[in-house]
Amino acid sequence: MTSRRPADPDNAVARKKTKKKAKPKAKKKKAPPAPPDEDRGEVHELSDDAEDVGSLIAEVVVLEGGEAVDRDGSGAEPDPVDDLDAVIDDHLDAEDVEELIALTAAGGEPEDVVEEPPLASLDEELPIEVLDENTEVIPPPEKIAAAARAPDAPGGDARAPALERAPVEQDLEGAIDLGPEITPELRDRLLAQALAHSDLQDARYRVPLTGPRAAARWKAALASLLLLVAAILVAVPPAWVRPEPPARIDAPARAEGVRAALLLQGQQVDAYRVRFQRLPDSLDELPDRITGLRFVKSGNRAYQLIGQVPGGRTIIYDSSDPAPEFGRMTAAWAATP
Amino acid sequence: MTRRADRAAHGAAAGDVLIFLATLSIAAALLYPAWSTREFRATVEEAVADVETLSAAARVERDRRNRWPTPAPPGEAPPELSGLGQADGIFDRLGYTLGWASWDVVDSVDAPPSTDAPAFDADPVAAEATPMVPVIRRVGAVTVHSGDESLLAELLEKYSGRTSFVLDTMWLLVLPERAESVAPSR
């Protein structure tokens, strides 16, 4: 907090001198900027024991020039009162002189001291209002967004356009103008309400829905039920789960295969006999043979081929009297065109 | 955390794991049969396609040179059909092996009439019983060797209209000299 002393004529003169000194600098705007350590507008403390205006002016002159001016060239210490006219001519114009005289005569006009309101302390404890569930402390985000888009709508924030339309070059203080509505008390109150609301929500979320034992119990029951369903699906799958079973080779099909193999091998033996006019001693003499068949030669023209089905039953192909089943097969591949 | 709370927390975690495993088991029980069947069907279709390819190539070769391709061991391509046995060939697949063979078949045909015997001495009974002479023909054969009995059974069923049989772990399809018009059943 700043306070100013009541104006008195002496100080008024000093301020006037300072103002006088600042004026030419303001007029020299086009000049390059002065260094930071330059004394601009600094108010020098003048001695309180100045007896009159003349001595005061002389003191000012000494401060400004650094030393007293020996105007007459005599070398003697100049008399401040004598040099008053010269100083006035050099440093003050007529208008300033008149104002100075008027101030001296009137004793100076007191300045208005404006008392600034005291700043609120953040550490000060304020009463916290208890919130009920229906209290809306912080508006929802969609409401804030809507208010920002349409500040003139009911419920809109009048500060939104100031924030949005503030140009970059604008002064920051002008852009974030909180206005007189937000007082420190209101701000602290809103902060306290927000903290209370947050604590309330946090406390609600921390309350467990069910006890850990109950949760473990129903989870175990559910897991048991699911495992039972899975076991049933694996053991006794329903029709819509069971795919079409792949084909299997039954016993008749296997027997038919053995017969076909015997007949085909017999054709190789017959071809050998046609070519060489004799029967082979074993199947190894044939260029093509089927494994798993036995060959028995019962004479110069007759032979038997023996095959075995997986069940242990044997099937015999007798070249002298083949079974009727073999005759049907022969027509399939030996028919002449 | 107290011992009781710790035990409760572990019990809850075990329950979650059990529920997850049970759900996984149900999904596996529902999806595995369909998945395995789909894979098997794909293998069967691939085998049928390979058999058809080899049959067609062998028949083309026979029509061109009037003889079947040279037999080759299972999994190897005949020299005449070496193009089919190159990289990503059809003879060695995952789950089965393709083979090519040819077999002799003895057929009996009427003997040509003899010009030595006079016509008036001909015995009417003997004349009716014309002599038959054996003729050796050769048929082609496509074989599929596999330890999967279901695959062989599927092939046997698909080619039920043609001469094929299963012996142990081999399925054999006979290709007569004449092209058969019977297509494999779908």
Question: What are the key terms here?
Answer:
heterodimer, A: 337 residues, three-stranded antiparallel beta sheet, rod-shaped, B: 186 residues, alpha+beta
Describe this structure in words.
The complex is a heterodimer of chains A (337) and B (186). Chain A is mainly alpha-helical. Among the domains of chain A are: 9-28 and 39-106, no CATH class; 251-334, no CATH class. Chain A is 46% helix and 4% strand. Chain A is built from eleven helices and three strands; from the N terminus they run ααααααααααβββα. Chain A has a three-stranded antiparallel beta sheet, with helices on one face. In chain A, helix 1 runs parallel beside helix 2 and helix 1 runs antiparallel to helix 4 (94-106). Chain A is rod-shaped, with a radius of gyration of 61 Å. The relative contact order of chain A is 0.05. In chain B, a hairpin with a 2-residue loop joins strand 4 (164-167) and strand 5 (170-175). Chain B is elongated. Chain B is built from three helices and five strands; from the N terminus they run H-E-E-H-E-H-E-E. Chain B has 186 residues and is an alpha+beta fold. Chain B has helices at 3-65, 124-128, 149-158; strands at residues 92-93, 96-110, 132-145, 164-167, 170-175. Chain B has one domain (3-175). The model of chain B has no long low-confidence stretch (mean pLDDT 81). Classes of the chains: A mainly alpha (337), B alpha+beta (186). Chains A and B meet through helix 9, helix 10 and helix 11 of A and helix 1, strand 2, strand 3, helix 3 and strand 4 of B.
Span of the ends, CA to CA of chain A? 127 Å
The count of strands of chain B amounts to 5
Total count of strands of chain A: 3
Q: Taking Cα atoms only, what radius of gyration of chain B do you get, to the nearest Å?
A: 30 Å
Task: State the secondary-structure class of chain A.
Answer: mainly alpha
Please tally the helical runs of chain B, counting DSSP H or I stretches of 4 or more residues. Answer: 3
The greatest inter-chain interface is formed by: A-B, 51 and 54 residues
Largest sheet of chain A: 3 strands, antiparallel
Distance between the termini of chain B: 67 Å
